[in-house]
Design goal:
single chain; about 160 residues; mainly alpha; 7 helices; globular; cell shape; Cell_shape_determining_MreD
Length: about 160
């Protein structure tokens, strides 16, 4: 069970990520937007895999689908798969340096983005080009900030 402070920190970090996901970005900046909800899910699954797992990621993805108005289950499936892969390599992930962790985050968020676009293709929403993959690059660049910020706020000690 997550303590009162820990549950508050998880909720605040997710709420902040959802609010920032609503903020529109102009032009090409929108393509490189880091998936903050995915980064928050990855952080909590990395720090507390016994408390935040695939089912929690699926639920957070469902809320993201409802909030963004995407097809129901799109983000849920992508975040669940992403979290599953992270939990399979979590012991190695903890030993990696920040650059290696960022590379793994790039791969995991890239998988999540590809799953979302695959589902969109199945439902009739065409992808014009591969610019949508810039979000994985933005997420990898933003990972150190998310990790150090949440560690500083007490995420490590829940």
């Amino acid at each position: 069970m997550i303590s009162g402070h820990g549950l508050f920190l998880v909720c605040v970090s997710l709420l902040a990520a959802w609010v920032l996901a609503w903020v529109p970005l102009p032009g090409l900046w929108a393509f490189g937007r880091p998936d903050l909800v995915a980064l928050i899910i990855l952080y909590w699954a990395y720090r507390h895999p016994d408390r935040i797992g695939v089912l929690a990621a699926w639920g957070m993805g469902l809320v993201t689908d409802l909030m963004l108005g995407t097809h129901l289950g799109t983000h849920a499936m992508a975040y669940a798969i992403m979290t599953y892969f992270l939990l399979n390599v979590q012991h190695r992930f903890r030993l990696y340096g920040m650059l290696q962790q960022s590379l793994v985050v790039f791969l995991l968020t890239g998988i999540a983005i590809m799953v979302r676009h695959w589902i969109n293709q199945l439902t009739g929403v065409p992808a014009r080009d591969l610019m949508f993959m810039l979000g994985a690059f933005g997420s990898a660049l933003f990972w150190p900030f998310v990790r150090y910020t949440l560690d500083y706020m007490g995420g490590r000690t829940l």
